[in-house]
Amino acid sequence: QLQLQESGPGLVKPSETLSLTCTVSSGSISRDTNYWGWVRQPPGKGLEWIANIHYSGRMYDNPSLRSRVTISVDTSKNQFFLSLSSVTAADTAVYYCVLFSREGRGDLWGQGTLVTVSS
Amino acid sequence: EIVLTQSPGTLSLSPGERASFSCRASQSVGANYVAWYQQKPGQAPRLLIYGAFSRAAGIPDRFSGSGSGTDFTLTITRLEPDDFAVYYCQQYGSSPLTFGGGTKVELK
C-alpha cells in the first residue's frame, strides 16, 4: 500500500524559508498517471492547494503563492519537496503531501505536518 | 479561479438520519470534476467521491454524489457514528485547484 510521509522543521522564523520533504514508500514516484503535490490547512480553517509536480518535472501551481513556492522531485530518492520563501505567521498550517490523479483529485494524503511560523 | 461555496456550514443530525449538503461553484466545473473528502479531527482528508458521483475505493454505498455544472451535492443516506466529521468539496476541472470551506456534520 503506497504511503506518503512529510518531514521537516516544525518551527520556522518569519522571513525565512519553509522546506518540507515528502517520502513515498511502498511504491514508485515515477508514475506516469499521477502528480505529487502539497495542500495546506491553517489551524481550524479549510484546505488550500499549493502546487503539483509530475516525476518528469512538469508542474503547476497556485498563482496566489507562485512567487514564493518551489516544488521539486528526486526520483532516485522517491521524494518530492516544497520550499516556501519569506514566510509569515499566515503560513502557519498543517502541510499535507498528496498523490493526485492526472486530472487533479487527491487520491492519497500523508498524515500532515504542522509548521509554525514564529520568532 | 473557481470559488466553491459549501452550505450549510454545520449540520446537526442523529445517527440513522439522512445528510445532504451542497457545493456551489462560481462557474461551471469542467467535466464535472468535483471531489468530496471527509476529514476527522487530527486526520488527513480522505477521498470519498470523484467525478461528481463516482465512489472511491472502499467507500460504502451510503455515500453518494450528484450534480453537474455549478451545483453539486453529497448525500449520506443513513448516518453512522463514524460519519460525524467535516466534509470538503474540491474542483479539479481547472487550475488553480480549489476547495470549499467545508460542512461540519455534528451529533445532535
| SSE order of chain B, one letter for each helix or strand | EEEEEEEEEEE
Arithmetic mean pLDDT of chain A = 97
The whole-angstrom Rg of chain B is 13 Å
Q: Stretches of chain A where pLDDT falls below 50 for ≥5 residues? A: none
The largest β sheet of chain A comes out as: 7 strands, mixed
Distance between the termini of chain B: 36 Å
Number of helices of chain A: 0
Which bin fits the share of residues in helices of chain A? Answer: under 10%
Structural class of chain A: mainly beta
Structural class of chain B: mainly beta
Task: Tell me the radius of gyration of chain A.
Answer: 13 Å
Distance separating the two termini of chain A: 39 Å
Quaternary organisation: heterodimer
Write down the overall mean pLDDT of chain B: 97
Strand content of chain A: over 45%
Shape of chain B: globular
Helix fraction of chain B?
under 10%
Taken from the alpha-carbon principal axes, the silhouette of chain A is globular
Count of helical stretches of chain B: 0
Order of SSEs of chain A: EEEEEEEEEEE
The proportion of strand residues of chain B reads over 45%
